[in-house]
Amino acid sequence: MRIYYIYFTLLFYGMTLKAQNVTPMFGAKDSMIVEVNQEGQLIYHYKFKKDNTLYSLSRTFGVPVANLMQFNHITEPSAISLDEDILIPISQNRLSSPKSLSTQDVVIPVYYSVKPKETLFRIARIYTDKTIDELVEWNHLENHVLSKNQKLLIGYFVLNTPQNIQKIEDSNEQQPVLVNHHFDE
Predict the structure, then answer these.
(1) SS3 annotation, 14-59
(2) Using one digit for the tens of pLDDT, what is the confidence trace for 84-139?
(3) What is the pTM of this model?
(4) Predicted pLDDT of residue 152
(5) Can you tell me the distance from the alpha carbon of 32 to that of 94, in angstroms, rounded to the nearest whole number?
(6) In-domain check, residue 16
(7) Structural domain count of the chain
(8) Which residues contact 149 (CB under 8 A, 6 or more apart)?
(9) Cα–Cα distance between 34 and 37 in angstroms, integer?
């Protein structure tokens, strides 16, 4: 009898997942462009989509729902409208380098849009924990000169797969988690 219960539970769960038709947060060609707020925190502007919830954003990015609400001054989650800009704090230590990724990881490249008078040193040391040499290599730069609005690859955000989510929940880690996209190396 227990076998039948497990079988029907799995069958029902599978049908429920098929029926949900959830809009994915990211497509295969997506990337994230981040900026830095006044406190020096990397911020991603996410457009709220159909079927999104603060909970789904929390799970994907590894940011507690309460933090998302506070960061975005949200008092009523049900009042969030489609295409509303939701600010997601991205922790520097969640940006992975290409060499640290496994073939199992689904990642999204994370870019920073260069502001006037910014240098590689400032971006590498203050906004990220990457080296200047890493940024030069990843962006195929011939020199250290940057242009205003230049998109600079600063790392890869690893998508929160069920395995990663479980690891985070088990570790009591409260830091933001990154996102996913496949890349050629």
Answers:
(1) HHHHHHHCCCCCCCCCCCEEEEECCCCCEEEEEECCCCCCHHHHHH
(2) 999 999 988 888 888 888 777 778 899 999 999 999 999 998 888 899 999 999 99
(3) 0.70
(4) 95
(5) 13
(6) no
(7) 1
(8) 113, 114
(9) 10
> Which backbone phi and psi does 64 adopt, to 5 degrees?
-55, 145
DSSP labels, the chain = -HHHHHHHHHHHHHHHHHHH-PPPS--TT--EEEEE-TTS-EEEEEE--TT--HHHHHHHHT--HHHHHHHTT-S-GGGPPTT-EEEEEE-GGGEEPGGG--TT--EEEEEEEPPTT--HHHIIIII-S--HHHHHHHTT-SSS---TT-EEEEEEEEP--HHHHHHHHHHT--S----------
Alpha carbon distance 109, 98 (integer Å)? 10
For residue 16, which amino acid is it? T
Task: Record the tokens describing residue 157, joined without a space.
Answer: 């955000």
Owning domain of residue 157: 23-45+89-171
Write out the two tokens for 118. Answer: 């910014």
**Inside any domain, residue 6:** no
Q: Mean pLDDT over all residues of the chain?
A: 76
